[in-house]
Write a structure and sequence with these properties.
The complex is a heterotrimer of chains A (about 290), B (about 350) and C (about 325).
Chain A lengths: L1 H12 L1 H18 L1 H4 L33 H37 L1 H16 L2 H12 L3 H28 L2 H8 L4 H37 L11 H8 L7 H29 L12
Helix pairs in contact in A: 2-4, 2-11, 4-5, 4-7, 4-9, 5-7, 6-7, 7-9, 9-10, 9-11, 10-11
Chain B lengths: L2 E14 L2 E14 L3 E5 L6 H9 L7 E10 L2 E2 L5 H8 L4 E4 L13 H12 L20 H17 L5 H5 L8 H13 L5 E5 L7 H18 L2 E6 L2 H7 L2 E6 L2 E7 H6 L4 H8 L36 H5 L4 E5 L2 E4 L9
Chain C lengths: L4 E13 L5 E15 L4 E6 L5 H9 L6 E6 L2 E2 L5 H7 L3 E4 L13 H12 L4 H15 L15 H13 L5 E5 L7 H18 L2 E5 L3 H7 L2 E6 L2 E7 H6 L4 H9 L39 H5 L5 E3 L2 E3 L10
Parallel strand pairs in C: 3-8, 3-9, 6-7, 7-8
Antiparallel strand pairs in C: 1-2, 1-4, 4-5, 9-10, 10-12, 11-12
The chains are: A mainly alpha (about 290), B alpha/beta (about 350), C alpha/beta (about 325).
The complex binds adenosine-5'-triphosphate (ATP) (2 copies), iron/sulfur cluster and magnesium ion (MG) (2 copies).
Iron/sulfur cluster binds next to loops of chain C.
């Protein structure tokens, strides 16, 4: 479709967005091709204590950890966990938040108010704290991390969709669809949702970053996937005992988290400009 | 009567994504002192662009003036430096009444504050040749002049029939109705005692009853103060109401110009005739103009109306028709004008 | 003959909110409005901006809920129906928006917008719908290629045609046209008006024609209703309204239209002042603050609509011969 070609073209022209998109793409490739790319795929679950805490060199590009495993290999496999957690958690949050926001925004009045007050309560508690509380109660496992993250993040989408729906609902073409006799569900799904989709896409991209950060924090606190799973947050936590001598131990996963979160944020910001013609950057840089 | 403004062969375009849009193509227009000149034509034909060219407020980066001259009181405005234009002409000898009076006020200041700010450097009482002319923000505003200016303002608000002028000055723009705001704009346009007022569709945003009041006001003030008015509109009825003469534009070319009575009684250009025939009539017969308004990036050659014209011949397609004088003051650009049965 | 649309005592108020969202008053956009529309006629609805013309149309359509009164369409009180039945009525009752460009979903191609009403109200197959859309497209004079364009890619006059095509696909009985020619150039307006006429013939339509252009109303309508600040102040056959207007407001409206070739109205236009704030109406007759004929009684009593022949006017002095 012409529109998507246009979006793609703009994406390629904007340096920051392009960088963000490249990072995300690399992450996805790393996760898929982890077995191929890793120099020592077996290291993920095997120990070679003789090799422990080697600094980066020609064999272990990012050094080895306290068990003697190759950090690069663990990082690559860790990308799978990160992506799984982020995708499922954000997917659930979107699946819950968007319909709630849509219905609340469309109907207004008391059902809307009720739904919004509930999401306000969720938003009043810092996300990390809430996620920790939930994950702690349920016990450490990937499933529970996902559950905790979805439960804490859905109100972001509900709020956003609520506000967007409220404003789009006043547009004349919505009124005219209603006047034509379209049912509320039809209006919401076929008219309102496509018109607010760009806002949702942007929010989702930025939300992925935030979710990955919180997931890492949970891992750091030992609430994520149990060892020896190569969870990035847990890797940083493990490295604490060996700092500052084994500087590479914390640097590699830290850098990975930083890059991925930044990638999602850059992409989200860029998409905001690309998808929304109203706040397109003045003058169009990089022309 | 003396010629106040003469636009001669003005050609200009706007740079757009699709290419250069040739918005004005050799336009001619003359206005005598104290004359109300109507500039009529359909949406997008270049009325506002011509008005903005005379005011010297075209967007500098997008507009490209290819030729012609705008002679105001014997001097070509296109040769003025932007600074001199802003100081002596724009807002002083030529003033402007916009279509949407709301957007022309700053919503956070009272009307009075905004008017006095203008008076400070546009008032006819200001001293010329003073250093502050080049730094108006720093210049002093003597109390005596201020008082005199204030009296002028109140007198003018009274002249535009705004009730209780002193109170209106204390109000904010949103507290006035559309009609009141338009009266204010008229008052502000007359404050510097200009020679020419450009009114760009000043009544399209108003209702018929309010429109009638405003039109009457513009007409009367123009007569009393001997101010010339360039009045753009796409409503022929409005043009009939207050204009001394009418110029019609089509797609960036002026096609006919005549004194009002003659214009409506004996239109000579086929486009003018069609335009008049499009007006709703009691007997219920209306005829539109078949075809579409041309694309200005790739306009038709010759007379730009030829693709929609029944009288068009090979000559119309190949060259732009010269202006022909049919009667004193009545000129038409057409190879085959409708001549009144003699 | 029984009216196709019968409005009785219809009211619609919009709350005015002060600081902190407190309600401090109400705009009476419709205040006890009654009128009938006969099958096959064109009823004009004129009045100043903000007098409630669109609100009347939208309340009839069910876009606004009435605060009082009833709306009978084909004898059924549609305001009292439950939502599903109300939606079904919309098949026969359609509203054409003041701004047709804004009434089309910017992300939908024209073709999809035209199929939509048929999907909602009928069980036609895709081929049948395509055929019907093609028929309508021809009727409103749009090229078939336009089906693949987005609303912003076509001109204002064409958007108007698309808007009409969309509501006509369902073969409605009554169409409310809200300012159908505003913002159009005279040459385009002429073609659009001719189109309305032809469509009425072809589809047997009844129109409620909202406009503030009196010349157009005079040309198009059988009867005219004049509104002022939420009330109908005069209603009657077009010829009579234009020749012997009974209400001073109607007279001033008529006097305000520039007439090419006639006397110039600006020479002696007599209506002074601006309409009052709709949230704070004057006592008695709401026109009295601007009325040249007003007397003491006008400030005390609100005049009711009285019949003078086929005309009805709401003025204490309606039966006086116009000057
Ligand atoms: N800044 C600009 N850049 C590019 N094109 C422009 C610009 N300003 C005006 N145009 C184009 O120039 C043409 C003439 O515009 P103009 O505003 O003068 O028309 P008009 O006669 O005043 O129309 P209307 O009756 O709608 O106000 C239009 O086709 C418009 O799209
Ligand atoms: N949704 C709304 N909420 C609050 N006030 C409204 C709403 N819609 C209309 N109004 C008010 O109701 C009054 C009547 O409005 P309406 O749009 O019916 O006028 P109109 O006669 O159609 O005017 P126009 O000729 O400008 O279209 C106005 O004072 C308007 O401000
Ligand atoms: S009732 Fe009185 S104020 Fe109202 S229109 Fe008639 S004369 Fe005028
Ligand atoms: Mg203009
Ligand atoms: Mg309206």
């Amino acid at each position: 479709m012409a529109v998507w070609r246009q979006v793609l073209w703009k994406l390629l022209r904007d340096r920051a967005t392009f960088l963000g998109a490249s990072i995300i793409l690399s992450l996805i490739l790393a996760a898929i091709l982890a077995p191929v790319l890793s120099p020592f795929p077996e290291d993920v679950f095997e120990f070679h204590t003789a090799n422990r805490l080697r600094p980066p060199d020609g064999v272990n590009y990012f050094g080895t950890d306290r068990m003697g495993s190759d950090i690069l290999s663990r990082l690559l496999f860790g990308a799978r966990i990160t992506i799984t957690i982020a995708l499922i958690a954000v997917g659930t949050a979107v699946a819950v938040g968007v319909p709630i926001g849509l219905v609340a925004g469309y109907y207004g009045a008391w059902p809307g108010d009720l739904l919004m007050r509930v999401s306000d309560i969720f938003l009043a508690i810092p996300q990390v704290v809430l996620a920790i509380a939930i994950a702690q109660t349920l016990g450490p496992s990937i499933e529970n991390v996902i559950l905790a993250l979805s439960a804490t993040y859905w109100p972001f989408w509900a709020r956003l969709v609520y506000a967007e729906t409220r404003s789009v609902k006043n547009e004349i073409f919505i009124e005219s669809a209603i006047a034509l006799g379209a049912s509320p569900a039809r209006v919401m799904i076929l008219h309102i949702l496509p018109n607010i989709s760009s806002a949702i896409i942007v929010r989702t991209s930025i939300g992925m970053g935030a979710t990955i950060l919180t997931a890492a924090a949970l891992g750091f606190l030992g609430l994520g996937a149990p060892p020896p799973a190569p969870e990035w947050g847990r890797m940083i936590a493990e490295s604490r005992d060996f700092l500052p001598e084994a500087w590479w131990y914390a640097t590699a996963p830290g850098l990975a988290i930083f890059l991925v979160v930044m990638g999602f944020n850059l992409l989200g910001d860029g998409l905001r400009d690309i998808l929304d013609p109203r706040i397109r950057r003045a003058g169009g840089r990089n022309d | 009567m003396t010629e106040l403004l003469a636009v001669r062969d003005l050609t200009l375009g706007f740079r757009t994504d699709a290419g250069l849009a040739r918005v004005l193509d050799g336009v001619n227009l003359t206005i005598d002192a104290g004359q109300v000149m109507g500039l009529v034509g359909e949406s997008g034909c270049g009325k506002t662009t011509l008005a903005r060219a005379v005011l010297g407020v075209l967007p500098r980066n997008a507009a490209e003036i290819a030729g012609g001259e705008i002679v105001f009181k014997g001097r070509d405005l296109l040769k003025f430096s932007p600074g001199a234009l802003a100081r002596d002409i724009c807002g002083r000898a030529i003033t402007f009444i916009p279509q949407d009076p709301y957007g022309s006020f700053n919503p956070v200041f009272t009307i009075g504050t905004q008017i006095m700010e203008i008076m400070k450097w546009k008032s006819p009482r200001r001293v010329t040749g003073h250093w502050s002319e080049h730094a108006p923000l720093l210049g002093p505003y003597p109390a005596e002049r201020r008082r005199a200016d204030m009296e002028t303002v109140v007198a003018l608000l009274d002249a535009v029939q705004l009730p209780q002028p002193a109170q209106i000055l204390r109000k904010y723009p949103h507290e006035l109705s559309g009609g009141q705001r338009q009266r204010l704009m008229i008052a502000m346009a007359l404050l510097p005692e200009p020679d020419l007022v450009i009114a760009d569709e000043p009544t399209t945003a108003l209702d018929v009853t309010i429109q009638a009041q405003i039109l009457g006001l513009i007409r009367r003030l123009a007569n009393e103060r001997n101010v010339a008015v360039l009045f753009t509109t796409h409503d022929l009825g409005t043009a009939y109401e207050i204009c001394d003469a009418v110029t019609v534009m089509y797609a960036g070319q002026e096609v006919e110009s005549a004194p009002t009575d003659r214009f409506f009684a004996a239109p000579a250009h086929p486009y003018t005739g069609k335009l008049l025939a499009s007006l709703p009539r009691h007997d219920g017969e209306v005829a539109g103009i078949p075809g579409e308004v041309p694309n200005l990036v790739r306009p038709p050659g010759g007379c730009r109306f030829h693709p929609r014209c029944e009288r068009a011949s090979e000559a119309c397609r190949s060259g732009k028709p010269p202006a022909e004088m049919l009667d004193p003051g009545h000129s038409v650009r057409c190879f085959h004008p409708v001549r009144p049965a003699a | 003959m029984s009216p196709i649309l019968d409005i009785r005592g219809l009211s619609r108020h919009f709350p005015i909110h002060g600081p902190f969202g407190r309600q401090v008053g109400a705009v009476r956009a419709l205040d006890d409005v009654s009128l009938q529309v006969m099958p096959g006629e064109i009823l004009g609805l004129v009045g100043e901006s903000g007098c409630g013309k669109s609100t009347l149309g939208k309340t009839v359509m069910g876009i606004h809920r009435p605060d009082g009164g009833e709306i009978r369409f084909d004898g059924v009180d549609i305001a009292a129906l439950e939502p599903r039945a109300q939606r079904a009525v919309r098949k026969h009752l359609q509203y054409s928006y003041q701004d047709p460009g804004a009434s089309l979903d910017p992300r939908w191609k024209i073709g999809r917008s035209l199929h939509e009403p048929l999907i909602i109200h009928t069980t036609l197959s895709t081929e049948e719908r395509t055929r019907r859309v093609a028929d309508i497209l021809r009727a409103v004079g749009l090229p078939e290629g336009h089906l693949d364009l987005y609303p912003h890619e076509i001109s204002g006059g064409q958007q108007r045609r698309v808007g009409l095509a969309r509501i006509l696909t369902l073969h409605p009985k009554l169409v409310i046209l809200d300012e159908p020619t505003s913002g159009l150039d005279v040459s385009v307006q002429a073609t659009v008006l001719t189109l309305f006429r032809e469509l009425r013939q072809a589809f047997n339509l009844t129109y409620m024609f909202i406009s503030h252009d009196l010349a157009v109303v005079r040309m198009m309508c059988d009867r005219v209703a004049v509104m002022y600040l939420g009330r109908i102040v005069e209603i009657g056959p077009t010829d009579q309204i234009f020749e012997t207007p009974r209400h001073p407001y109607t007279r001033s409206l008529l006097a305000a239209i520039p007439r090419i070739g006639g006397k110039r109205i600006t020479v002696d236009f007599w209506l002074k002042g601006e309409p009052p704030d709709p949230g704070n109406l004057p006592s008695g007759c709401r026109f009295r603050t601007r009325c040249p004929r007003a007397e003491a009684v006008c400030a005390q009593e609100e005049p009711a609509l009285v019949a003078i022949g086929l005309q009805h006017a709401a003025c204490h002095f309606a039966s006086e011969k116009p000057a």
